Amino acid sequence: MAAKEKIKNSEAFGKKDKSEKKQEFAGNEIVKPEGANTKRMRIGRGPGSGNGKTSGRGSKGQKARNTVRRGFEGGQMPIHRRLPKRGFTNIFHKEYQAVNLRDIEKAKLSGTVDPAALAKSGIIKEETGLVKILGTGEISKAVNLVADKFSKSAEEKITKAGGTISVRPPVVLPKKADKINRKKI
Fold it and tell me: Contact, 51 vs 44, CB < 8 A?
């Protein structure tokens, strides 16, 4: 009786009976779920296989002999040609990254705030893209903002706080080398 009480007391303080063995993780004893490994179906191996003769393709016709391309409707005018085309893509469309004044205030930016500073603070994703400052929220500090575009309300709030705005000059990409070489000839 005394030995059992000693074991119970030792278990209470975190010690366990030495007779119990630890169960260790054995990766080689993991059982795969049923249906994890299935043999591939071997088609066209005689009548005993269940997929002999026509090999699961039915009898005769285009689908039995070769494949049919996607969207083929048997020779009739396909739906992608029957339906009218709608809309267009404007090649002159410009995508701006919007920045609100509340984001600048929350990030506690001061001094000259340009796209590089906005990208560093995580407000915008890329500093090379176009940036537009919007007037949502308030700004308390005098900040010199540099961006590609400003909304009217943003301009008013920045100047009211004592800050300045300046439009970033547009990025001019170099012309292709083959066009330059043609001019020289």
Answer: yes
Domain ranges of the chain: 96-167
- Residue 5, pLDDT score: 67
Average pLDDT, the chain: 85
CA-CA-CA-CA dihedral for 47, 50, 54, 57, to nearest 10: 180
Residue 150, beta-bridge partner list: 133
Q: Which residues contact 84 (CB under 8 A, 6 or more apart)?
A: none
Torsion angle of C-alpha atoms 98, 99, 100, 103, degrees rounded to 10: 140
Place of tokens 């043999």: 39
Tell me, yes or no, if the pTM score tops 0.70: no
Rounded CA-CA distance 130/119 in Å is 12
CATH pick for 96-167 out of 3.40.50.2300, 3.100.10.10, 3.40.50.720, 2.60.40.10? 3.100.10.10
Q: Is beta strand 96-100 parallel, antiparallel or unpaired with respect to 149-150?
A: unpaired
For residue 159, the SS3 value is helix
Write out pLDDT tens, residues 158-177: 999 999 999 998 866 666 65
